[in-house]
Specification:
It is built from nine helices and twelve strands. The protein has 298 residues and is α/β, with parallel strands linked by helices. The protein has a ten-stranded mixed β-sheet with strand order 1-2-3-4-7-8-9-10-11-12, covered by helices on one side. Strands 5-6 form a two-stranded antiparallel ribbon. Helix 1 runs parallel beside helix 2, helix 3 runs parallel beside helix 5 and helix 6 runs parallel beside helix 7.
């Protein structure tokens, strides 16, 4: 096996199981098997990279001493999905989906992610493949090529109504006004969910107006606007919003033609949401050598 399980954590009250995997060069990455209650089956949140270079201020990867090491290879991704799926495949069959929404951004390792996704589908490990991304413009443009491989579903992490606001949460993010038209074109080929994390920083009354104005022209173009409660992360400057309920009500009322939902993240209830690493689990020996390991974006 190109990977080994270094640690697991079963998190009550749900059925989530967090896995920490190690590679032959002692890099570490995460996967989380999540119980999909409405489907009575499991899915897996999968990492695309060992560590992450984006430094998002709402994600525990940033604060858990897990700097970017390298992109995961296709065989490492596939082996991890196999290990997570095997204990539940006999009673339930394939996983509901593999969602590349864990550590790192799938867009930054797209060639390896697409290769792994094809293998996952060929082996019948999952029914669907989803990709969640902060969505660099260049990558979204690649998705619009005639010969581009596309997963079954996408989720675009928006998290701000303006470029300045969004970059406070995702420092390397592009301006939403520039990226959204590209995503609208992708949404003509695959369902795209727009995700917006709720925190003090972006749920003020002015933010309700700005987000409504930003999204109003795209009514009916996207599958869903998902408003996600933030996972409290030790070390993060972001805090849960005291206006969360009012913000959700305002968007639900004012965004005509949009399906608006509220996602109370697993991290708040189970400390097991994808990408929200626990530093005490990942406080492992560093790789033998990180020199030259960082791979360029494919």
């Amino acid at each position: 096996m190109p990977v080994e399980i270094l640690s697991t954590l079963n998190v009550p009250p749900g059925r989530s199981t967090k896995y920490v995997f190690g590679t032959s060069d002692r890099s570490t990455f995460e996967a989380v098997r999540l119980w999909e209650g409405d489907r009575e089956a499991y899915s897996v949140c999968m990492s695309a990279q060992a560590g992450c270079r984006y430094g998002c201020t709402h994600c525990a990867t940033t604060f858990a001493r897990t700097p970017f090491v390298r992109n995961l290879r296709p065989e490492e991704i596939t082996a991890a999905v196999q290990a997570v799926a095997d204990p539940v495949r006999t009673p339930q069959g394939p996983l509901v989906w593999v969602d590349f929404a864990g550590v790192g951004d799938a867009a930054a390792n797209w060639t390896h992610v697409t290769s792994a996704a094809r293998t996952i589908a060929d082996r019948g490990l999952a029914k669907q493949v989803k990709v969640t991304s902060i969505a660099p413009q260049a990558w979204v443009r690649r998705l619009l090529r005639a010969d581009a491989w596309l997963p079954d579903r996408f989720m675009f992490s928006l998290h701000g109504a303006t470029g300045t606001q969004r970059r406070a949460i995702i420092p390397r993010a592009d301006d939403p006004a520039t990226v959204l038209p590209l995503w609208a074109a992708v949404a003509e080929q695959r369902p795209v969910v727009v995700n917006y994390v709720l925190c003090e920083h972006n749920t003020r009354p002015a933010d309700e107006v700005a987000l409504t104005q930003l999204l109003a022209p795209y009514a009916g173009r996207f599958a869903l606007l998902r408003l996600s409660s933030i996972n409290p992360v030790h070390g993060s400057p972001l805090r849960p919003s005291v206006r969360e309920a009012k913000f959700i009500a305002a968007l639900s009322r004012d965004l005509e033609g949009w399906v608006v939902s509220h996602h109370l993240s697993a991290g708040r209830e189970a400390v097991a949401a994808c990408g929200q690493l626990r530093s005490e689990i990942l406080d492992l020996a560093p790789p033998v050598s990180r020199t030259g390991q960082a791979e360029t974006m494919s």
